[in-house]
């Protein structure tokens, strides 16, 4: 059995539900553990139990070391601080042979068993960002992404996991400092520091806004097939990481950071159906628990979906900054990578 753990509060509830449903559809034998970072999330899953899901309260999860550093971290920093501890908690308390941390804003498109099987006799697996060259942030954000980090309950695996947990408790902040950044830069030297650490090779694991430009995608018999442009190598899409997707007031969704180029193939293959799935889950949650802000809407969008007024705003902002910007590359990129949409457009 494959065991997964993730953490989130009620603002990510719909994303967590879509993640779970994708595992139900794609994974033959799995269990998902969710560390609920607020009461609304805990109560929702207690009142609406799922067959392959266990919800864990903060009261159960937090130990003295985590409680000690919690006041020194922002909400995001504390989530990062807890990543390694969620895996350790599940392996220890549920006597698991393996456990993989996964981010809640992911969706699976084929069985992740193929990724875990790639580990072979290794005890830990990490996933490369595989940055498209012009987006390479390895020096600041790290070579590897804390999105799918697998540990086996072996001496080697637990040694790495406990080292990571202790490192994150000692220092885990949203800044670059002494070669560290959050919980993520710690992974950079694991293949050299520890024995039994495998770097995932399967291109279908870890598709994300910062690397998707390297691939073309088609759908064949209900499966999404990717082709690496540089090598013409084909692969099954296993999971997509919907990093920085946000929902706003007035039924607006922002798909991704404008820094990343997303063509129509990527938006139609991945984003449109994902947003539809989120909408479906939101409607179900809203019927059951209308008080929950299940999409994490906390204010108005900076921009409206593309329209004449949006164009005027872009040009006005750039003109105020510098007259040379009005018809420059910056405003053209803003227009090209304008990823604000009304939900009903999906």
Task: Write a brief caption for the model.
With 346 residues, the chain is of the alpha/beta class.
What can you tell me about this protein's structure?
- With 346 residues, this protein is of the alpha/beta class.
- It has two domains: 240 residues, Alpha-Beta Complex (Spore Coat Polysaccharide Biosynthesis Protein SpsA, Chain A), CATH 3.90.550.10; 100 residues, no CATH class.
- It is built from twelve helices and 18 strands.
- It has a seven-stranded mixed beta sheet with strand order 3-2-1-4-7-6-10, sandwiched between helices. It has a three-stranded mixed beta sheet with strand order 5-15-11. A three-stranded antiparallel beta sheet has the order 12-13-14, with helices on one face.
- Helix 1 crosses helix 10, helix 5 runs antiparallel to helix 8 and helix 11 runs antiparallel to helix 12.
- The radius of gyration is 20 Å and the shape is globular.
- The mean pLDDT is 95.
Q: How many structural domains?
A: 2
Looking at the overall shape, the CATH architecture of the largest domain is Alpha-Beta Complex
Number of helices: 12
Low-confidence stretches: none
Radius of gyration, taken over Cα atoms and rounded to an integer in Å? 20 Å
What structural category do the secondary elements indicate?
Answer: alpha/beta
Secondary structure tally: strands = 18
CATH class of the largest domain: Alpha Beta
- For CATH, the homologous superfamily of the largest domain is named as Spore Coat Polysaccharide Biosynthesis Protein SpsA, Chain A
Kindly estimate the percentage of residues that lie in beta strands according to DSSP: 15-25%
Distance between the termini: 35 Å
Strand order within the widest beta sheet: 3-2-1-4-7-6-10
Compute the average pLDDT: 95
Question: Topology as H/E string?
Answer: EHEHEHHHEEHEHEHEEHEEEEEEEEHHHE
């Amino acid at each position: 059995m494959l065991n997964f753990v993730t953490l989130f509060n009620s603002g990510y509830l719909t994303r967590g539900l879509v993640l779970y449903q994708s595992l139900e559809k794609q994974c033959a034998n799995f269990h998902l553990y969710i560390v609920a970072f607020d009461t609304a999330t805990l109560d929702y899953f207690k009142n609406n139990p799922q067959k392959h899901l266990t919800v864990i309260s903060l009261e159960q999860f937090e130990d003295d070391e985590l409680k000690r550093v919690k006041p020194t971290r922002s909400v995001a920093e504390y989530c990062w601080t807890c990543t390694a501890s969620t895996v350790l908690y599940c392996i220890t308390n549920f006597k698991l042979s393996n456990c993989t941390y996964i981010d809640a804003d992911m969706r699976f498109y084929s069985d992740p068993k193929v990724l875990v099987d790639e580990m072979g006799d290794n005890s830990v697996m990490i996933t490369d960002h595989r940055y498209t060259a012009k987006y390479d942030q390895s020096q600041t954000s790290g070579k590897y992404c804390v999105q799918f980090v697998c540990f086996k309950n072996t001496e080697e695996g637990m040694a790495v996991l406990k080292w990571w947990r202790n490192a994150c408790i000692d220092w885990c902040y949203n800044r670059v400092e002494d070669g560290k950044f959050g919980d993520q830069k710690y992974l950079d030297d694991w293949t050299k520091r520890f024995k039994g650490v495998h770097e995932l090779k399967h291109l279908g694991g870890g598709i994300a806004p910062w690397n998707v430009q390297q691939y073309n995608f088609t759908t064949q018999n209900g499966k999404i097939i990717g082709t690496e442009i540089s090598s013409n190598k084909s692969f099954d899409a296993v999971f997509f990481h919907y990093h920085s997707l946000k929902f706003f007031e007035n039924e607006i969704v922002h798909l991704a950071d404008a820094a990343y180029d997303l063509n129509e193939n990527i938006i139609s293959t991945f984003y449109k159906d994902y947003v539809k799935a989120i909408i479906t889950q939101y409607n179900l949650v809203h019927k059951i628990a209308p008080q929950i802000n299940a999409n994490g809407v906390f204010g108005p969008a900076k921009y409206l979906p593309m329209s004449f007024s949006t164009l005027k705003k872009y040009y006005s902002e750039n003109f105020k900054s510098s007259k040379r910007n009005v018809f420059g590359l910056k405003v053209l990129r803003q227009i090209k990578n304008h990823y604000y949409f009304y939900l009903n457009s999906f």
